[in-house]
Amino acid sequence: MEPADELLRAVEATLFAAEEPMTVEALSAHLGGADVRAALDELQGHYRARGIQLVERGKRWHFQTAPDLAHLLRREREQVRKLSRAATEVLAIVAYHEPVSRAEIESIRGVQTSGGTLDVLMEAGWVRVAGRREVPGRPVIYATTPEFLSHFGLKSRRDLPGIDELKAAGLLDPVDDAYDEMTEKARDEPTGGNDGPPEDATALENPQESA
């Protein structure tokens, strides 16, 4: 068997057995420093039309159920934890404008944000503490996690739905052009500011079943 075939099988076996998604660097280190990128691309193509697929989410790789078959694995009695409106608003603000402080979140929402709301999002594994803002008082700032990207089927924050997509889905009321421009800019930039968030975060609720 060719060395390339052996590496392909090793990458496949490692990802299949991994308890959590793995980065290219972690996978390479696990396999003795091998260059695994070509193997990942080949495996992704091999599994593209199968019942499970190899996907990259937040720079981490894992196998997941093909989206059109996810319903076959759902239990008859699902326990779905729905976020409150406040939590979905805060999650959307963090996703589109990260890193942001609690004060900045409150400024964007226009209302006070309870510490419990952020605790819920951190407990879910979707929001993390990303350090402190270098300003007087050094407030804590928050950002999304790789688990957030994986849960909502996003490869990166650039895949977040834009204003046009949210409007087409009927999830936003008409807004002016300046607001559109600010929100699109927040989505495309690696770090956010104090621009307004989408008015409804339900566009993010598109979970995929993981294998």
From TrEMBL:
<keyword id="KW-0963">Cytoplasm</keyword>
<feature type="region of interest" description="Disordered">
    <location>
        <begin position="174"/>
        <end position="211"/>
    </location>
</feature>
<dbReference type="Pfam" id="PF04079">
    <property type="entry name" value="SMC_ScpB"/>
</dbReference>
<keyword id="KW-0159">Chromosome partition</keyword>
<protein>
    <submittedName>
        <fullName>SMC-Scp complex subunit ScpB</fullName>
    </submittedName>
</protein>
<dbReference type="InterPro" id="IPR036390">
    <property type="entry name" value="WH_DNA-bd_sf"/>
</dbReference>
<dbReference type="InterPro" id="IPR036388">
    <property type="entry name" value="WH-like_DNA-bd_sf"/>
</dbReference>
<dbReference type="InterPro" id="IPR005234">
    <property type="entry name" value="ScpB_csome_segregation"/>
</dbReference>
<keyword id="KW-0131">Cell cycle</keyword>
<keyword id="KW-0132">Cell division</keyword>
